[in-house]
């Protein structure tokens, strides 16, 4: 776990993230080419781009799971992560699945479950949940953390319209509290004042000059 | 520290929930040990002489069985990403998984080695020494195995690579462990072998989780 003092002081008050000229290769294929972006408190940034443009790779690089091949990612606060997998163990109940996130985080489990309409499923094994319910359960983990910066990879996969609305309300509340998020999505989210960052497809870039 | 214990707690819950997976290595241990009398013949002298060696080799092989899934399941369902990002330090995550591996595999093997030892004719007076050696040995094997499992994580055919990586590293544990267990039969002092077995354990204790933590970081990157 990281304490607030582990992060550098932001150059601008409210700054949560600086991504400076980040380039990432996968094998000898260029995935991200000089991506720069900044994120301030209250921002919601939507990453767009065709399949294979490196949206998930950029999120993984920002999170620190992957090191950029050049450039720099500077975070000024804790982050919460929602990958494209739900990371739920089918044999454990919803509450047991979220127990670790609850211990590590600062927010209450019952509030998060309430906001996502999962309270009645608390003691159900995760293997009995539908894919939309699992997605919401994974999202509940993000809410538990209490981290200002949310990195969300396709949060709405498998969700119905009512659940997407619910998610939108949670995201809006998080922004109102000074949080920020970067989201990859293929469906429109019910969010106001979003910024978007388009990643170009680099499939046409030849890699011969690397050899 | 609470996250570390919560991780062990979660793994133990999973182990109880999927009891068949946990029992598999235990049953393998007992079955494997029971095959030796069938192959070697029922001579009590021969079996008593071979008993500790059989138990040590079977325990070593049984420890390998669950290693493939130790981190593999976490990687596949995305839990490892979360653990690396928000959990305790990578080395602590690896150490918690190794501790859970010992509690769900090493400890049951230790208990099962009592009936297996008696079956093979190991004398009651020699059993405590065997158990002491096995306790230290299985702990070392959990640490070495967890390290190897994290290194082959994400590699194709990692399951095949795993025993090739663990077995050579485990030879000192096997040599000193079996030597300590034979001290009773040969009427020699087990002190030297136990010391060396303990030295193996204390070398593994800091080094294996550190190496495994790096392996886990590389696997998610």
From TrEMBL, chain A:
Alphabetical UniProt keywords: ATP-binding, Cytochrome c-type biogenesis, Membrane, Nucleotide-binding, Translocase, Transport
Recorded superkingdom: Bacteria
Alphabetized GO MF terms: ATP binding; ATP hydrolysis activity; transmembrane transporter activity
UniProt cross-references to InterPro entries, sorted A to Z: AAA+_ATPase, ABC_transporter-like_ATP-bd, ABC_transporter-like_CS, ABC_transptr_haem_export_CcmA, P-loop_NTPase
The keyword ATP-binding appears for this protein: yes
Any one Pfam family match given in the protein's UniProt record, by short name: ABC_tran
SUPFAM superfamilies: P-loop containing nucleoside triphosphate hydrolases
ABC transporter domain residues: 17-209
GO biological process: cytochrome complex assembly
NCBIfam families (UniProt xref): ccmA (TIGR01189)
Classification via PANTHER family: ABC TRANSPORTER I FAMILY MEMBER 1
Protein name in UniProt: Heme ABC exporter ATP-binding protein CcmA
From TrEMBL, chain B:
GO MF term list: heme transmembrane transporter activity
An annotated GO cellular component: plasma membrane
Subcellular location: Cell inner membrane
Claim: Ribosomal protein is one of the keywords in the record: no
InterPro entries for the chain: Cyt_c_biogenesis_CcmB, Cyt_c_CcmB_bac
Transmembrane segments: 20-40, 46-67, 102-122, 129-154, 160-179, 191-212
Domain of life: Bacteria
Topology class, membrane: Multi-pass membrane protein
GO annotation terms (biological process): cytochrome c biosynthetic process; cytochrome complex assembly
Keyword Transmembrane annotated: yes
Alphabetical keyword list: Cell inner membrane, Cell membrane, Cytochrome c-type biogenesis, Membrane, Transmembrane, Transmembrane helix, Transport
Function: Required for the export of heme to the periplasm for the biogenesis of c-type cytochromes.
Family: Belongs to the CcmB/CycW/HelB family.
The protein's name in its UniProt record: Heme exporter protein B
Organism, scientific name: Gluconobacter roseus NBRC 3990
């Amino acid at each position: 776990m990281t304490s607030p003092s582990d992060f550098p002081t932001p150059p601008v008050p409210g700054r949560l993230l600086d991504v400076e000229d980040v380039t990432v290769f996968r094998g000898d294929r260029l995935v991200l080419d000089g991506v720069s972006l900044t994120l301030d408190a209250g921002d919601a940034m939507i990453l767009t781009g065709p399949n294979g443009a490196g949206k998930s790779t950029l999120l993984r690089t920002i999170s620190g799971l992957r090191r950029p091949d050049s450039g720099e990612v500077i975070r000024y606060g804790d982050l919460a992560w929602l990958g494209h997998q739900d990371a739920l163990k089918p044999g454990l109940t919803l509450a047991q699945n979220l127990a670790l996130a609850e211990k590590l985080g600062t927010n209450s489990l019952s509030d998060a479950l309430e906001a996502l309409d999962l309270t009645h499923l608390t003691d159900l094994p995760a293997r009995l949940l539908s894919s939309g319910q699992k997605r919401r359960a994974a999202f509940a983990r993000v809410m538990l953390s209490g981290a200002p910066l949310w990195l969300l990879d396709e949060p709405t996969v498998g969700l119905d319209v009512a659940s997407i609305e619910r998610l939108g309300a949670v995201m809006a509340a998080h922004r109102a509290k000074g949080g920020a998020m970067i989201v990859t999505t293929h469906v429109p989210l019910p969010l106001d004042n979003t910024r978007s960052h388009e990643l170009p497809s680099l499939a046409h870039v030849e890699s011969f000059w690397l050899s | 520290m609470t996250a570390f214990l919560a991780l062990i707690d979660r793994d133990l819950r999973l182990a109880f929930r999927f009891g068949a997976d946990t029992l598999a290595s235990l049953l393998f241990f007992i079955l494997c040990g029971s095959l030796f009398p069938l192959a070697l013949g029922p001579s009590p002298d021969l079996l008593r002489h071979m008993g500790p060696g059989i138990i040590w080799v079977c325990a070593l092989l049984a420890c390998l069985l669950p290693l493939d899934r130790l981190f593999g399941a976490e990687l596949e369902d995305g839990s490892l990403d979360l653990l690396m990002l928000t959990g305790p330090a990578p080395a602590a995550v690896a150490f918690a998984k190794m501790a859970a591996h010992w509690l769900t595999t090493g400890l049951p093997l230790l208990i099962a080695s009592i009936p297996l030892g008696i079956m093979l004719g190991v004398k009651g007076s020699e059993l405590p020494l065997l158990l002491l050696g096995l306790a230290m040995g299985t702990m070392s094997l959990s640490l070495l195995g967890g390290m190897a499992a994290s290194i082959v994580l994400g590699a194709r055919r990692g399951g095949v690579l795993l025993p090739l990586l663990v077995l050579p590293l485990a030879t000192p544990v096997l040599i000193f462990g079996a030597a300590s267990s034979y001290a009773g039969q040969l009427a020699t002092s087990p002190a030297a072998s136990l010391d060396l077995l303990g030295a193996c354990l204390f070398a593994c204790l800091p080094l294996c989780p550190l190496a495994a933590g790096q392996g886990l970081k590389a696997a998610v990157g």
